[in-house]
Specification:
The protein is built from 8 helices and no strands. By secondary structure, it is an all-alpha fold. The protein has a single domain, classed as Up-down Bundle (3 helical TM bundles of succinate and fumarate reductases). Helix 2 packs across helix 7.
Amino acid sequence: MVSFYKTFTSSLGRKFTMALSGLFLISFLLVHMGVNALIFYNDGGATFTIGAHFMATNPVIRTLEIVLIVGFIIHIVQGLILWQKNRKARPIKYAHKMVTPKVTWYSKSMTLLGTLMLLFLVVHTSNFWIPNRIHQFKFDEELPLYNLMLAKFSNPVEVIIYLFGCLSLFWHLLHGFKSAFTSLGISHRRYNGLIKWTGICFSFIVPAVLFLMPLSIYFKWINR
C-alpha cells in the first residue's frame, strides 16, 4: 500500500496520473463537441435538444459525470503540484536565457493555459451545466438549453470569453495530447508520427467547432 502511494505521488507517478486523466478529458471533449455541433443542423435546436436530453438523462452518462469531475480535479491538482515542484527545483533564474529552439512557448506555458481554461470552465459550468442540474433536481425537468445558449451568446462579452477559452484549449491540447502519450510510455518511432498528427488534428478541430458555436449564434448564422 505504501509503495503504491509512493508510486503515484512521485514525479513520474504524478505525470502518469495527469496524462491518464488528460486522455480521459480528451475523450469527454470529443463527446461534448459532438453534442454542441448538433446546433449546426440549423433546425431551430430540435436535434441539439434531443442530444442534450440524452446527455442529461442517460444513467451511464450521469455516472460518468462523477468520474469526469474526479478526472478534472486529479488533472488540475497534479498539474499544480508538478508546477510547484519544478519551481522549487530551480528557485534561481538563469542569468542568461538558454536557447532551446525545440521547446515551444505553449509547452512552457501549460500551467498558465490550464489556469485560463479552469477560469473558463467555471464560467461555462455556471452558465449551463450547474443551472441545468439544479433545475433537474428541483423540478425533475431540464432547462431549455438551446434557448439559454441563444440568450448567453447574444452577449458579446460572453462570446469573447468563450473564444478565449477555445484558444486556450487549442494551445493546451497542442502540447498536452502528444505529451500524455509520452508520459504513459506510449512512444515508438513507428507510430510517434501518427500520434503527433492525430494530436494536431484534434487540437485544431475540437476547439474550432466549439469556437464556431458562439460565433454562429451571435452573428445569427443559424435559425432561431
